[in-house]
Amino acid sequence: MSKKRALLSVSDKTGLLDFAKGLVAAGYELISTGGTATYLKDAGLEVLDVASVTGFPEILEGRVKTLHPAIHGGLLAKRDSDLHREQVSQNQIDYIDLVCVNLYPFEETVKKAGVTEAEVIENIDIGGPSMLRSAAKNHQDVTVVCDVADYPAVLAELAENGQVSAATRRRLAIKVYHRTAAYDAAIARYFDQVDHLVPDILTLSYKLEDSLRYGENPHQKAWHYVSDQAESYTLQSATQLHGKQMSYNNLQDASAALDILNEFQGQTACVVLKHMNPCGVALGANVKEAFDKAYEADPVSIFGGIVAINGVVDLATAERLHAIFLEIILAEGYEAEALDLLKKKKNLRLYQIPQGGNLA
Question: Sign of torsion, CA 78 84 85 88?
Fold first, then answer.
């Protein structure tokens, strides 16, 4: 089996060892950098250091290591081009057939308490996005992997066919452009917030959370995307305890109910909502009183609606809720007997929201 080359350079080493072993079994020679190379060598794998490929040492505290023609020429060279083959040969460049890179954890770094700007800046990845984009641009010849979740699929294709299919290479390349765009958006957003800037171009990034049962109408498809940024009072941070999958309309209604509930932080409040319109909003000395008041505001429209509560649902309140047809209940908690009672309704969606403050 002829040797191919795979370049591995990751911050998140989840699943890396098994992936690397699978690549070796598929006939790949491994190239790696810094901590990733050390990690693989310590596990007993044979690894070629990037410096031995480039003929140039890692410098500037690792800021410069893969930004070299021996790396990017090996990634970008078109295998079916006579000119490219000639220039690769003239410059003694070897092809790199697979790149596995996940980026410095910029998004996680900026969320750390007390993080300094110097730490933030050091977590802006330069070489990683460059290699990903080079490999993605040349996905006709190169496999690029930026997500741990794709390791098994790549290894499965290599084991079955000896190569990664063109369709998979294209899918992974497209994924790279989404990832690098989101990464750059996070960096821009950080500096916008620190310097209180209003950008000329607003870049937003959302991650797929779930597929929905259907869209606004039953024949339509819909997906739920979430932001990793602090937004108002979102369903993203709630935990589903019971019930069937959400539809688009369910999601819209639940989000609207939580937005209203967010106006009453620190108070015992209940919001009853249906089709994006509040049927009743009330405060109470306790959860049951708040619900009773909200219910009395419109006891007809609540049918098939959503109830959101700043508080813990007790059995007495659960008995009132159980007697009504509802789509969703969102609350800070449920007493054990209350939860058992509400779970008797198979399709009733029950969510727990974080206590005492903004969900985001």
Answer: negative
21, 41, 137, 322: which one is catalytic? 137
Contact (Cβ atoms closer than 8 angstroms) between residue 159 and residue 22: yes
What is the spatial distance between Cα 341 and Cα 111, in angstroms, rounded to a whole number? 39
Name the more confident of 105 and 229. 105
**Distances from the Cα of 154 to the Cα of 28, 115, 144, 164, 169, angstroms:** 13, 36, 10, 6, 9
Cα(331)–Cα(341) distance, integer angstroms:
15
% the chain with pLDDT above 70: 97
How far apart CA 128 and CA 133 sit, in angstroms, is 9
* Catalytic residue list contains 322: no
**Residue 284 dihedral angles phi and psi, to the nearest 5°:** -150, 165
Q: List, by residue range, all CATH 3.40.140.20 domains of the chain.
A: 216-352
Task: Identify the CA nearest to 143 among candidates 6, 310, 321, 326.
Answer: 6
137 is known as an active-site residue: yes
Q: Is the dihedral of CA 249, 250, 252, 253 positive or negative?
A: positive
Q: What is the DSSP string of 157-217?
A: HHHHHSS--HHHHHHHHHHHHHHHHHHHHHHHHHHHHHHT---SS-----EEEEE-S--SS
Q: Which ranges in the chain are annotated with CATH 3.40.50.1380?
A: 4-195
In the predicted model, what is the mean pLDDT of residues 11-39? Answer: 93
Q: What is the pLDDT of residues 120-176, one digit of tens each?
A: 999 998 999 999 999 999 999 999 999 999 999 999 999 999 999 999 999 999 999
User: The domain 4-195: what is its CATH number?
Assistant: 3.40.50.1380
What is the CATH number that goes with domain 216-352?
3.40.140.20
Q: Exposed (0-12), middle (13-18) or buried (19+): which is 240, by Cβ within 10 Å?
A: middle
- The pLDDT value recorded for residue 359 is 43
Q: Hey, what are 65's tokens?
A: 């290591």
Q: How many helices (H) and strands (E) does the chain have?
A: 14, 13
